[in-house]
Specification:
Strand order of the largest sheet: 1-2-3-4-5-6-7-8
Order of helices and strands: HEHEHHEHEHEHHEHEHHEHHH
Radius of gyration: 19 Å
Largest sheet: 8 strands, parallel, barrel
Structural class: alpha/beta
Number of helices: 14
Bound molecules: glyceraldehyde-3-phosphate, 1,3-dihydroxyacetonephosphate, zinc ion
């Protein structure tokens, strides 16, 4: 089956009360890991690439890898999604290169760092929605801005700044009405990367009650949770046992994500957990077999480790068992849906 637009998967997820992991990729092994996890669990999948991933891989490599993924897995509906598009131009170039869904992240200015204002966010998001829907492509937007503090070196908003940019439910309601988007990313206290929380998060820092409030006001909106890696202790331990230096850190517990799914969360972005799993597996080979130099000998375990994380998330989020139940729609068919 061809690549499908995001909206098809999220509508099915909403009708059947589950969530779908949106998994970031930068290379062939990561795409293979996701596809074999999806095959083994009969899961629909969202594969996403950031701007950084696109420049690392080159759109042509990425497009052909994605086409190989659908050719080899004809029973699995696959979305090819742009993660954190920083401008309409970035979204449009993704669409030209085969993406079936784009995120216009107008919560930040074009530099991808500075929080923008509401009017700017509506303007760019609406511009992308109009152009994308005319081609049957889905659009995710974001209201509120996530923390991006990586390891104390300050990529993005600090923890304090992020708390000031949590999603305002009134504004979320207005934003959906003003833009007509397909999926709404919200800021509830999570951040990108491994260093999210310095202890297991409580409701003080991870505001799941905000999701409940947004869902109460917008019961038909497909909510997206960014920064949703769980940063499992065992993945930190594998890295540190083999020469790594990950400082003790905590992510978003899977049970909190499951609570979100009961309250309208349909897309859950996970990148860091897969990075940790691959890095741990590679470190282990380098550490225990220093004589090894065949890349397949460390990339295969890395791919297997990522596959296990993906399978666990697919099962926990409830997408497992649903691939075969989805009636796929092409972008062309979605043009009529959006016109109606
Ligand atoms: O939003 C963040 C994703 O984890 C992608 O990260 O920009 O380093 O590719 P990246
Ligand atoms: P993590 O860093 O928590 O995996 O979040 C990824 C993400 O939100 C990508 O958009
Ligand atoms: Zn994100």
């Amino acid at each position: 089956m061809p690549l499908v637009p995001l909206r098809v998967l999220l509508d099915h997820a909403a009708e059947n009360d589950y969530g779908v992991a949106a998994l970031n990729v930068n290379n062939m092994e990561q795409i293979q890991a996701i596809m074999s996890a999806a095959q083994e669990t009969d899961s629909p999948v969202i594969i996403q690439a950031s701007r950084g991933a696109r420049s690392y891989t080159n759109d042509a490599y990425l497009r052909h890898l994605m086409l190989a993924a659908v050719e080899l897995n004809p029973t699995i509906p696959v979305v090819m999604h742009l993660d954190h598009g920083n401008s309409p131009a970035t979204c449009f170039s993704a669409i030209e290169n085969g993406f079936t869904s784009v995120m216009m992240d107008g919560s930040l200015s074009e530099d991808g760092k500075t929080p923008s204002d509401y009017e700017y966010n509506v303007k760019v998001t609406k511009q992308v929605v109009e152009a994308a829907h005319a081609q049957g492509i889905s659009v995710e937007g974001e209201i509120g801005a996530l923390g991006g503090i990586e390891d104390g070196h300050g990529a993005g908003l600090s923890e304090e700044e992020a708390q000031e940019h949590l999603t305002d439910p009134d504004q979320a309601e207005q934003f959906v009405a003003d833009t007509g988007l397909d999926a709404l990313a919200v800021a509830i206290g999570t951040s990108h990367g491994a260093y999210k929380f310095s202890r297991k998060p409580t409701g003080e820092v991870l505001k799941m009650d905000l999701i409940e409030e947004i869902h109460r006001r917008l019961p038909n909106a497909h909510i997206v949770m960014h920064g949703s890696s769980s940063v499992p202790q065992e993945l930190q331990d594998v890295i540190n046992a083999h020469g790594g230096a990950i400082k003790q850190t905590y992510g978003v517990p899977v049970e909190e994500i499951q609570r979100g799914i009961q309250n309208g969360v349909r897309k859950i972005n996970v990148d860091t957990d897969n990075r940790l799993a691959m890095t741990g597996a590679i470190r282990k080979v380098f550490h225990t077999k220093p004589e090894e130099f065949d890349p397949r000998k460390y990339l295969s375990p890395a791919r297997d480790a990522m596959k296990e994380v993906c399978k666990a998330r697919m099962i926990a989020f409830g997408q497992a068992g649903n691939a075969g139940k989805i009636k796929p729609k092409t972008c062309k068919e979605m043009v009529a849906f959006y016109k109606a």
